Amino acid sequence: MIRKARIDDAKKIKTLIEGFAKQNLMLIRPLSDIYECIRDFCVLEIDGKICGCGALHIFWEDIAEIRSLCVNSEYQRKGLGKEIVNFLIEEARQLKLKKVFALTYQVVFFKSIGFEIVDKSHLPQKIWSECVKCPKFPDCDEVAMIRKI
Ligand SMILES: CC(C)(COP(=O)(O)OP(=O)(O)OC[C@H]1O[C@@H](n2cnc3c(N)ncnc32)[C@H](O)[C@@H]1OP(=O)(O)O)[C@@H](O)C(=O)NCCC(=O)NCCS
Question: Which residues form the N-acetyltransferase domain (predicted)?
C-alpha cells in the first residue's frame, strides 16, 4: 500500500534512506528535515513495515522534484518504485503542476517511466539554492531527468 506519510513514519523513513545513503546512492535526510517536509512524503507499507518512500517537493508554479525515492532491496524490481513515482505524479497532477524532475543515478529506471534526460541548466534556478547546501556541490554527478505530466 502506498499512502501519504504520517509523522510517526519519519524515523523509519530516515533509517531507510540512511541505508542507501551509505552506499552513496541517495542523499542523507536529517530527521529535522524529514519532519519539516513530512507532507512531501509518501510511503510504501507492506505488512505494517515501511519498505519504501518517495517525496514530491514543489519548486515553482509548474515544477516539482521527485526526491528521496527508494524501495527496500528485498522488494526491488517488482514494480513498486514505479508505483511510488506514479503516486507522486498523481499528486502533482492534482496540484496542477506541469512537470516533475529528478536528479538521479537511476537513469534506466526513470527512462522506463517516461522521464527524459535534460541539461541541468533547464531546471529552475531556485534548485541551486538547495544544491549549494548539498555535500556534492559543485561536483554533482547526478543526471537531471524530467517528465511532463
Ligand atoms: C530506483 C528504485 C527506487 C527502483 O525501484 P524498483 O521497485 O526496483 O523499480 P521497479 O521495479 O518499479 O522498476 C521499473 C522498471 O525500471 C527499470 N529498472 C529498475 N531498476 C533497474 C535496475 N537496477 N537496472 C535496470 N533497470 C532497472 C526496469 O525497466 C524496471 O522494469 P522491469 O523490472 O519490468 O524490467 C530502487 O532500485 C532503489 O530504491 N534504489 C536505491 C535507491 C536509489 O537509487 N534511489 C533513487 C534516488 S533518485
Answer: 1-149
